[in-house]
Amino acid sequence: MRLRAMVAAGAMALALAGCGRMPGAPRTEYVPPDKVTDFATLYNTNCRACHGPNGQNGPAMDLGNPEYQALVDDATLRNIIANGMPGTQMPAWAQSAGGMLTDAQVDALVTGMRKEWAKPNAFQGATPPPFAPAADEKGNVQSGKQLYQAQCASCHQGQSRQQVTSPVYLALMSDQALRSIIVAGRPDIGQPDWRHDSGQALTPQNVTDIVAYLGSLRNPDAVSAAPQQNPSRR
Ligand code: HEC
Ligand code: HEC
User: Fold this and answer.
1) How far, in Å, CA of 17 to CA of 45, rounded?
2) How far is the CA of 132 from the centre of ligand 2 (A)?
């Protein structure tokens, strides 16, 4: 359902963007698309359909969340925008990766987001689990399942809520996308950050375990669906 909503929202926003200048609107000097470096123009043209006006209330991650902006460093942000986010619907934007934006435009998006959406002391002195797990940190599926039941299920079992354990939902959410949302929250739609309401903040290992558990539900058939050594066995 959410996938459909995302596609519909995207199509609508693209259609609106395509309408161009309203009659009577002031004429501005023509800037070739690859020379545009104004943040609002770049964001509204390329990102807003999925990430929402001002980085909020879109079908995808709220980039306008100051906690997200504080969690992700410049190099990572630039890399995600340039190369996309495999395992999700986030496309690659850099020309070097087959997208439409120049390196200067990717930089302008990073700088613009920081200027518009980052806030000093976004975590009020608290230290969140890092953007990505430590290289040697392994997730424990069993522990993740227990944590999910204790910390997430109460809010997510109702029909009206996103079924985050559904393989259909998880098929379009990479581990990193889940992690970013669990740590930074989505204040625009009511998802708490890692500190949660229960007063029991998630540790870095807790987050890695929950993501491992959700990852294990993503595609239970992954093993049997993997390319076979011997095609005749199919
Ligand atoms: C077709 C929809 C779509 C468009 C257009 C799009 N994104 Fe995304 N983006 C996604 C999805 C889906 C994710 C994965 C996370 C999610 O679903 O919340 C994502 C993730 C991201 C992330 C990483 C969030 C994280 O989890 O750490 C960044 C940063 C980002 N997008 C920036 C941009 C920027 C900047 C643009 C415009 C140049 C853009 N996106 C355009 C769909 C889109
Ligand atoms: C206090 C209630 C509450 C708790 C606790 C909670 N969530 Fe959520 N979560 C929400 C709400 C509200 C949304 C917005 C979408 C919806 O209504 O389902 C949401 C959205 C999400 C999303 C994004 C869905 C999307 O739009 O793509 C993910 C992923 C998610 N939650 C995972 C979790 C995980 C994992 C936990 C446990 C660590 C958790 N949530 C705990 C209320 C909660």
Assistant:
1) 7
2) 19
